[in-house]
Write a structure and sequence with these properties.
With about 475 residues, the protein is of the alpha/beta class. It has 21 helices and twelve strands. Helix 20 crosses helix 21.
Length: about 475
């Protein structure tokens, strides 16, 4: 029996002549979150199948007939990029040695514990994934590729460093290994977790929880659920978030604040892909992709004895560090325009123009709360703004923290230029004058684009187009 995935792609191919054994293995792998898994119940068709399909790993249920035909040797010789795990009922040492010499990455003799086979497959897939990610990342960086730009639309940036992070995120998004996102508060860690979820195209939903402040009982109940009667008030069975995120993505924020008991349970979940609902004695499998984030330095926590070293090593397979806003100040102007437009729309107001001095001042402010703080300050400024050009005066918290620069010495303005200096404090650019005139004309016309255009001697379309670019 041969099955082909909808797009003709597969990760694991089970080959053997016993259909029942193959079906049991497929159920075992899919329960462990390994997917897709294809079956081939005719070993004679293995080589033609591999010619036509993209297979990462072959699990070969070897029989004496296969050994005689040298199927393992032919797979390893003709398809060096495909790894092979052999399972068999034969305990002959010579056969085992020959299999490893032929190129098998693992060899198991039945009977064996199901978890042993799952672990062997996961280790092989991890090795394959690591090699592919290294190769793909090198290709991405050399060609400056970004294939899923739509997944990052909520993250506004012009920074080259951020684009490199986008590229790395694309590479690791489909890896079955956990992803750790680090960065200060407010840099957008959950947005990156959402991007990983979109790119990975998992079938389940994105489930997010901030685990900071949860004691072990609350952590266990929230993630793993509980059975009826597990504790006082547990009058019915309840699924946890791990179950809710099945075949999807589970995002755990602020994992650096987990207590030690919860860390042990999280480590088991990551290593074994298993968990127990509170009060239950029957284990359940986790099929969710797990993404975690923290705003603290976990290595410092390890030195302080507050974070498990083994859990850290399990987490740091794929690590995405998001730089603070002060490390990418070139994004300030873009974020300012975007957040001003969003805030104006939310408050039902016209989009105010912004002065270059405001952009310069914001770029000099360190924003300890990062992008989240910038967005909050802009929202407050637009809410209180009464008209004219949005200036530093609308950002009292920022203006108090930004050092004041002495004005550049210049001749005192006289005559016709004195009025312009009183408005801008300097000689403005043509663009600034035009923006100012449009804002003033709209105030005079009470927001009527046609009247404002008539006052300025331009078309209504010019007013509309110019406001969109402000």
């Amino acid at each position: 029996m041969t099955e082909v995935s909808p797009e003709g792609l597969c990760t694991v191919l089970l080959v053997g002549d016993n259909l029942q054994t193959l079906e049991q293995n497929r159920v075992l792998f899919m329960d462990a979150g390994i997917n897709p898994v294809l079956l081939l119940a005719d070993s004679r068709a293995a080589l033609p199948f591999l010619d036509q399909h993209n297979v990462s790993l072959v699990v070969l249920d070897m029989t004496p007939a296969m050994n005689e035909t040298g199927l393992l040797s032919r797979i390893c010789r003709n398809y060096p990029n495909i790894q092979v795990i052999v399972e068999t009922a034969s305990s002959d040492v010579e056969i085992a040695v020959n299999c490893m010499k032929s190129g098998a990455v693992d060899y198991m003799v039945r009977p064996f514990k199901p978890g042993r086979l799952v672990m062997a497959v996961e280790n092989a897939l991890y090795s394959i994934s690591s090699k592919q990610e290294t190769s793909t990342l090198k290709e991405y960086l050399l060609s400056d590729r970004l294939e899923h730009a739509e997944a990052f639309t909520e993250i506004k940036t012009n920074c080259r460093k951020m684009r490199s992070i986008f590229q790395y995120t694309e590479v690791v998004a489909c890896s079955p290994q956990p992803v750790l996102i680090t960065g200060e508060t407010g840099v957008g860690k959950e947005l990156f977790a959402g991007a990983i979820h979109k790119i990975s195209k998992v079938r389940g939903q994105f489930v997010s929880i901030n685990v900071a402040g949860l004691d072990d009982a609350m952590f266990s109940d929230t993630l793993f659920g509980h059975k009826k009667g597990a504790f006082t008030g547990a009058d019915q069975y309840r699924d946890g978030l791990v179950s809710k995120a099945a075949m999807g993505t589970l995002f755990l924020d602020e994992i650096g604040d987990l207590n030690e008991l919860s860390q042990v349970k999280l480590l088991r979940l990551l290593q074994e892909r298993e968990y127990y609902p509170v009060g239950a004695d029957q284990v359940k499998s986790c099929s969710a992709r797990i993404v975690m984030a923290t705003n603290v330095n976990l290595q410092d926590r390890i030195k302080e004895g507050r974070f498990r070293r083994d859990l850290y090593y399990r987490l740091c397979t794929h690590q995405i560090h998001i730089p603070a806003l002060r490390e990418r100040r070139e994004d300030i102007a873009l974020l300012l325009d975007s957040f001003v437009a969003e805030s104006a729309l939310r408050f039902g107001r016209d989009i105010p123009a912004t002065s270059p001095e405001l952009i310069q001042a914001l770029a000099e402010y360190d924003f300890p709360g990062n992008v989240r703080e910038l967005q909050a300050r802009i929202s407050d400024a637009v809410a209180r703004h009464e008209g004219g050009i949005l200036s530093l005066d609308d950002f009292p918290g920022v203006s108090a923290a930004v050092p004041q620069h002495s004005p550049t010495p210049s001749a005192a303005p006289t005559g016709a230029t004195a009025g312009i200096y009183s408005l801008f404090g300097r000689l403005p650019t043509f663009r600034e004058i035009e923006d100012y005139l449009i804002v003033e004309a709209l105030k005079v016309s009470e927001g009527n684009y046609a009247v404002a255009a008539s006052i300025l001697g331009v078309t209504r379309q010019t007013i509309s187009k110019r406001l969109k670019s402000i």
